[in-house]
From TrEMBL:
Official protein name in the record: Glutaredoxin domain-containing protein
Record bears the keyword Phosphoprotein: no
Classification of source organism: Eukaryota, Viridiplantae, Streptophyta, Embryophyta, Tracheophyta
PANTHER family: GLUTAREDOXIN
Any single Gene Ontology cellular-component annotation: cytoplasm
Stored CDD domains: GRX_GRXh_1_2_like
Organism of derivation: Gossypium laxum
Keyword tags: Cytoplasm, Redox-active center
Amino acid sequence: KDEEEQKEKQLATSQRSRRSGQNNPTRTTHSNMITLKKRRMYSYMGMGMGMGSDPMERLVKLASESAVVIFSVSSCCMCHAVKRLFCGMGVNPAVYELDQDPRGKELERALMRLLGNSQAVPVVFIGGKLIGSMDRVMASHINGTLVPLLKEAGALWL
């Protein structure tokens, strides 16, 4: 009788642990997916891939890997506006959220040195060339020079 009770308890415990994902290394939870995505993002952003430790070198490499690159901070309203501008135009920019990168502060300081001012984000590169922050992007959009830049970089086809 004791053996039967023990087997029932073990069965019940194993069913509960299966439902909750315990002792099941193949089960992927939402938080595991986020962690995995962050690891891939950091790997893509040059973390541990032989890229130099110099933030300016890393910045130049990241800026030249896509037709349109935006360095941003996820809580910045101006960053959100510039991302919406490009998405609204049909451009799919590569966005690097500096507040989600373990070495983001270093990149932010490098951007401030590059721009020569205290506001580091948003910063936009098109075709590997520095366009500037929000004011320069909006000025280019208003005066009609932004679309030709995007076409030249291969970010727009129409």
